[in-house]
Amino acid sequence: MKPAAFEYLSPTSIEEAVQALTDPDDGDTKVLAGGQSLVPLLSLRLAQPARIVDINRIPGLGEITESGGVLTIGTLVRQRSAEHSDVVRRACPLMAEALPHIGHTAIRNRGTVGGSIAHADPAAELPTVAACLDAELVARGPRGERVIPAAEFFTGFFTTALAEDEILTAVRIRSAAPGTGAAYEEVSRRHGDFAMAGVAAVVRLDGDVVAEARIAISGVDLVPVRAGKAEAALVGRVVDEPTLVAAAEAGVADLHPSADLHGSAPYRKHLAGVLIRKAVRTAAQRARESR
Amino acid sequence: MNNGNTTREITLTVNGRKRTVTIEVRRTLADFLREDLGLTATHLGCEHGVCGACTVIVDGATERSCTQLAVQADGREVTTVEGLNGPNGELHPVQEALRDHHSFQCGFCTPGFVMAIHGMVEEKKAGRPSPCSRAEIREELSGNICRCTGYQSIIDGAEAALAAGAGKES
Ligand SMILES: Cc1cc2nc3c(=O)[nH]c(=O)nc-3n(C[C@H](O)[C@H](O)[C@H](O)COP(=O)(O)OP(=O)(O)OC[C@H]3O[C@@H](n4cnc5c(N)ncnc54)[C@H](O)[C@@H]3O)c2cc1C
Ligand code: FES
Ligand code: FES
Question: Which helix (H) or strand (E) holds A212?
Answer without folding.
Answer: strand A209-218
